[in-house]
Write a structure and sequence with these properties.
Elements lengths: L25 H17 L3 E3 L9 E6 L2 E12 L4 E8 L2 E11 L1 E7 L5 E7 H14 L10 H12 L23
Antiparallel strand pairs: 1-2, 2-3, 3-6, 4-5, 6-7
Length: 181
């Protein structure tokens, strides 16, 4: 088991778009294993490589009885249905806020061997696939909160024991939800 430290909100790697994976090699398989071990150790539903300080487009997920990993993922909404629900992040420990996401998505990418993968997700799995893909784009779920909730979230984060007092950066997602966050 290789549990790695998780980068916390304020670390610039979390705001930097990750590079596409081009080599499906032993190093990638080791990264996927580290993501799994760390995600399971921390009790997360998903974990993206930038959260371990690695700027590559790969994440693991385990929710609603479905688990796997995606390399170079892209997702599309299946329909216009949305969901509001509690969302948290291992890089923002101890906090959860209501966040709007698509209810049904299809994510496509590759496995650690370069073979194509497609996963359909609804509800929690859809939320997870969108959340982790956002990480690969340098976007945090805080960026998707409505203005009042985001302001409250930032106040709470600034008061947390783990926040280092840096200046938090908010970013607009390249995957708009019907033109809004």
């Amino acid at each position: 088991m290789t549990v790695q430290p998780i980068r916390l909100f304020g670390d610039p790697v979390l705001r930097t778009p990750a590079a596409p994976v081009v080599d499906f090699d032993k190093e990638l398989r080791n990264l996927v294993r580290d993501l799994w071990d760390t995600m399971r150790d921390q009790g997360g539903a998903g974990l993206a490589a930038p959260q371990l300080g690695v700027g590559l487009r790969v994440f693991t997920y385990a929710c609603d009885g479905v688990e796997g990993h995606l390399v170079n993922p892209v997702w599309t909404a299946v329909d216009d249905e949305v969901q509001d629900g509690q969302e948290g992040c291992l890089s923002i420990p101890g906090f959860y806020w209501d966040c709007r996401r698509h209810r049904n998505v299809v994510a496509r990418g590759f496995n650690e061997h370069g073979e194509p993968v497609e996963i359909e997700g609804s509800d929690l799995l859809a939320r997870c696939l969108q959340h982790e893909t956002d990480h690969l784009d340098g976007v945090l779920f805080l960026d998707r909160l409505d203005d009042d909730t985001r302001k409250q979230a930032m106040r709470e984060i600034r008061q947390s024991e783990w926040f280092d007092g840096g200046v938090p950066v908010l970013k607009q997602s390249p995957h708009p939800l019907f033109g809004s966050r």
